[in-house]
Amino acid sequence: MEQTRKDMPSSGSHHAPATGRLTAENAAQRAIADLLAEADIELGGERPWDMVIHHPQTAERILARGSLGLGESYMEGWWDCARLDEFIARVLFARLDEKVGTSALRVQGIRARLFNLQSLRRSWQVGELHYDLGNDFFEAMLDGHLAYTCGYWAQAGTLEEAQTAKLDLICRKLGLAPGMRLLDIGCGWGSLMKFAAEHYGAECVGLTISREQAEHGQGRCAGLPVAFRLQDYRQFNRGGSERFDRIASVGMFEHVGAKNHGAFFEMARRSLNEDGLFLLHTIGKNLRRTPTDPWIDRYIFPNGDLPSLGQIADVSEDGFIIEDVHNFGADYDRTLMAWYARFEAAWPQFAARYGERFRRMWRYYLLACAGTFRARSNQLWQIVMSPRGVAGGYRRPG
């Protein structure tokens, strides 16, 4: 946790800010300026998505380290942009990410191929680094459900409405009914289980690797037929003796990793009744060969690995029939911007605890991710599966 706390090195804000537009800059800065021009971004410009450089080595760092250098130099105050989300979206639309710092991406890809970065030993790291930051912190940023996944904005006007609509959509897609047993793989603070128990009469069991989430979530669900288990999915129900009518996994599959996709689906299959349904809600990438972003891996979600739709289809085909695929990834842009607005509004109460470098890191995380969904570089899928096929066919609820 040390790298996100207030005792980190101070930002580079003491460097003199750049003045005016690009003039006779060094070769690296000229190269960056030429690249950014392809995305209609200007150095020292006045539009919200233009980049203002404060540190003379910023351009060299970005050229050498790509995404990692871009994010780290922002964290340290080396550059700024009024609309970071739009900056990132434009960079991705122009595919500039493929032209700089490719060595870092290659290293990331090699690591993923050679090692199981989501092994049992390493799987707890993301809980400790990210999800255990503090329940009060996430309560301030998220909605009343404490839903830390994409909202459904089809008819919603607020974050609360979007998350309520998402939870209800999942329950309706699963056809939940009173008395059904629901397993939530990667249950977070229990937003889905609480909603399913209260509104659909389901009995719920949730798996999480975050002690903070389990303790806080159990308190939120007091009096409901909801149980949290602090357990890795690979260690759950190994003998297959425990069965559920419905299974959901919402925003957890991104932490499983390609080397463990088979184990994940095997656990889901052995835990689901023959006439059951399984809903997988996950962020995904367009191309399976695309490695994890190095900055996100280092500072936000260690060992994360976004799946492609093809990877999900390949690994699930032995145990499941895919009944429905629903992509509403563009809604994550709006969700992240809503979280960002709440984060900024609440920041004064957390400034002393986390410090300015954490603030810039978290701002970069939320706004850069919004940019990736705006550029359609990332997707959000809800996939409904059944073990043997729904008799007469599955119909997605309206």
UniProtKB/TrEMBL annotation:
Question: Which biological process terms from the Gene Ontology are attached to this UniProt entry?
Answer: lipid biosynthetic process; methylation
Keywords attached to this entry: Lipid metabolism, Methyltransferase, S-adenosyl-L-methionine, Transferase
Q: What is its EC number?
A: 2.1.1.79
Query: Mind telling me which Gene3D superfamilies this protein's record contains?
Result: Vaccinia Virus protein VP39
In which family does this protein belong, per the annotation? Belongs to the CFA/CMAS family.
Q: Name one Pfam family in it.
A: CMAS
GO molecular function, a single term? cyclopropane-fatty-acyl-phospholipid synthase activity
Is Lipid metabolism tagged as a keyword?
yes
For this entry, the protein name equals: Cyclopropane-fatty-acyl-phospholipid synthase
Q: Name the top EC class.
A: transferase
Q: Which SUPFAM superfamilies match?
A: S-adenosyl-L-methionine-dependent methyltransferases
